Amino acid sequence: MRKILVLLLFCMLSFLPVFADGDQDSVLPSETGVVESIQYEDAPNLQQGDNNVKQIVKVKILSGKFKGVERDIDNMLTGNPAYDIPLKKGDKVILHAETDVPEVVSADDVSFFIADLKRDNTLIGVAALFFVLLLLIGRKKGAASLVSIIATMCLVFFLLMPLILHGFCPIAAAVLVSILSTAVTVYLVGGFNAKSTSALLGTMLSLIFAGALSMGVIYFARLTGFAGEENMFLYSAYPNLDFKGLLSAAMIIAALGALMDTSVSIASTINEIYETDKSLSIKQLFVSGMNVGKDIIGTMSNTLILVYLGSSLPLVLLSSNIDLQKFFNLNQVATEISSALIGSIAILICVPLTALIAAFMIKRQKEKLEFNFERDEN
Description:
The longest helix has about 45 residues, at about 330-375. The chain contains ten helices and five strands; from the N terminus they run αβββββααααααααα. The protein is elongated. With about 375 residues, it is α+β, with helices and mostly antiparallel strands. It has helices at about 1-20, 120-165, 170-190, 195-220, 230-235, 245-275, 280-310, 315-320, 325-330, 330-375; strands spanning about 30-40, 55-60, 70-75, 90-100, 110-115.
């Protein structure tokens, strides 16, 4: 099994450069700038609102080939907090660069626009705190978890994204990446043994079931795959993508963490029970795994529902101001409910599957090891 995993990861890494290449050379990179001064002007006769204000922002570029260049950039404030970027002196911003010139010679060939505030320093600080605590508290297991997190992020950004953008089936791509991510995680954390393999198989079969179920729900509920504004932006850039397949892939990825946690917990429990009493049969181990799984179901399904409720809290609040029948039939609301229910159903399927596989594999592997050990002694 170890050789299979190494071969699988080698094949995956071999294809990453192929999928990762794109048209990035034709896109100007964003730059970092700092606000040096701001002037205000009223901006009437605009459709966004009656009290529009224009900030004329003097920005000094801090990065790239145009470092040190200063530009006056208009920043409109329309009163809509979803789109406004209120700035003050000293703020660092991300600048979007555009040009119509094939070969940029000077800064005069480039137009700069304020894309958003620079927030990555805060994100890096929070991530560093997470990694430090993970290593201090988790020790070796924490280090293994850190490696698995990095591997999962690489799989998503350098395998899943390029596969989908190059026309590969989003559902198949999501299942493939999920299986690879699960394999890396469970074998790093649990080692190469029957416990980890059974957790991998339980997660894999549950993911396949979740993918099939999501396709059915999307078809019968006639979900469009356009549940948010970001989908419209993506459609404008890649109109040929399969957005219904993309929605199914999102449901699969969203359920992965809960499924992995469930399968690993059940497999580990069955392994510990067998180590305590090796006279237990496969049926008895299965029943023990199911008893633990029933406790996991209550908390894990509730956790998954709460995750979706938390991410969709504005939608939940909207229900107080709209007819409930209309509310529950909105495409975005139906999509969120479907995602939560599909993930919860997948957990329900994962429990008996993992319990059965773990009971069989752990019992058989331990008996085989004991038999080989006794034969070597004789």
